[in-house]
Amino acid sequence: MTRQYDTRRDARGWTVFDRWTGETVMLGLCAQAGLSWLDADDLAERLNRRRLAGDRSILQ
Hints:
By secondary structure, this protein is of the alpha+beta class. Helices cover about 25% and strands about 25% of the residues. The strands form two sheets. A two-stranded antiparallel ribbon has the order 1-2.
């Protein structure tokens, strides 16, 4: 199964994005951008595990 969420480098650090839409992940109306690599990677992994577990709630 492919990963829906991934990380990419941005001007201030790392961004977590949705690979299907290309959009930056938004949590609590905050763009998940400018993060440290460890925080961005951890968040992407958590979101992917949540998706694999069958949670289809929209995170916006």
